[in-house]
From TrEMBL:
Domain MATH as annotated: residue spans: 137-253
Species, as recorded: Caenorhabditis remanei (Caenorhabditis vulgaris)
Transmembrane parts of this sequence: none
Keyword Coiled coil in record: yes
Keyword Coiled coil: yes
Name by which UniProt lists this protein: BTB domain-containing protein
Classification via InterPro entries: BTB-MATH_domain_protein, BTB/POZ_dom, MATH/TRAF_dom, SKP1/BTB/POZ_sf, TRAF-like
Chain spans, region Disordered: 1-45, 101-131
Keywords on record: Coiled coil
Ranges in coiled-coil conformation: 45-86
Pfam (any one): MATH
Amino acid sequence: MSEENDNVTLGNNDPGSPKSKRRRISTDTDGNEEKPRIEEPIATIQNVHNMCQELLEKQKSLEKSNLEIVEKLRSAEEKMEKSSKDLGLIKLKIDKIEESLTNETSSESSDNKDTINSTTSSQQTTPSDVMSTDGKYFVLQHTFEKVSSLKDKNKLSSEEEEHFGFQWRMLIQRNNDYLAYFLYNKKIPDIGDYSIFVEFEPKLSSLKLNKIGNRYNTVFGKAESWGILKFIEWKKLEEDFSINHKLSAEIRVKIKRTTGIYKENLRNFDETMKQFSDVVLVINAKKFFVSKLYLATHSPYFNTLLLGQFQESKKSEIKLTGIDEDDFQKYLEILYGEQAIDEFTVEGILLVADMYDTPLVVRKCEEFLLKKSKKSLKSKLRLSTRFNLELLKKKCLAKITSVTEIRSILPANIQDLDKSLIADLLEKSISFQ
């Protein structure tokens, strides 16, 4: 058996056997194919190497280009920073010049109650902007009569109107071949140094066209009148604006801030109250440290803002816009039980209370206007319609006893009259007949 097995094994390895031949043929064939298989990878590696070299060259080029761009940006930033500093210095110099000019013209105006000053130094032209109507904004309107007969240096004036505790009126003057146009603020007696920072925009209108002047920023206090000496040529005025010797004029006014007007603060909301507060309200860079829950209790607006689903409810510091920081101070004082309302503060406080939907503060202001205020009937009626003070409105209407008194409370533009008030006044006028 073993010999047979050995024979079988040897037979399998016999070169003459078919399997052996197949193996030899296969081996020969593999030997013939090895050369192209080795050469192909070498060529591929060479191509990859070349591609890598090209990529490296491009990368170096890009790095160099990026470095140049970074260098240019750094240089541009340095130039911008230098320009910004230069502009800051220029602005500082301009502010000092304006301040000195304001002081000079103000001292001159103290000798003459109706002295008129030009605002050339504080002029800011912003024709593309729309003047903001939020905050302490109001409009003076008047139709001047007998304008064509106005002689050189003579003036015409509108009636005084009270807005935010101050008396305002418009003045026009013939200045040789031009019309001079001014905003007037009556000086407050028995008050020391004070300032009213104002932005105003004068306008003339007719059936043909409107003439809107530049926007001006100026300061009232020492000076009572500011305006434009050459607003429009007199000839053009008579051709395009004077209708039956009448001239329709308008000045839009925005009180930006005041100093020296409001009384001393009755309560602090600064950092001394930090430990008792859980949110900081910021108005024009001034910070108020207050309680979310206390504000939310009195104001649905603050309830939603501070405790609702808004992102602000998660913030520790929230910026408020469209109001004056001094008015907000007085608003908070009233919420905390202080007597902060007077003739100068009441309208500004109402503005804040109306914006933030605070019935308690609105009611306190209405009580002041009903019982203590010396404001004119026209001013009280205007406030009653603007802030929906129904008790005040009812009392004002009860005081109107003649057609003459009805005329006295009508605005220069009858279209500005509140629609609900028109019906009440019509009913009044009928009862007088």
